[in-house]
Amino acid sequence: MSRMQHALARVHRRKFKEIHGKLFDTWDKYEDDKITTTQLLRQCSNIAGHGPDSTHDPIHNEDV
Question: What is the pTM of this model?
C-alpha cells in the first residue's frame, strides 16, 4: 500500500468512526425517549449526508 493509499485509508477510518459514533448517540437518545421516531430518522439521514439542509418541514414541525 502506498503512502497516499495509507493516508486515505486513515481518513476513511476516522470519518467512519465519527459517523458511527453520531449514529449511536442518536440511537441512544431515541431509546431514552429524548427524541421521536421522526427525529431519529431525520437525524440519521442528516448524519449520513442524505437529509435536507433544514430539520423543519410543514408536516412534522411538532416533532422538532
Answer: 0.69
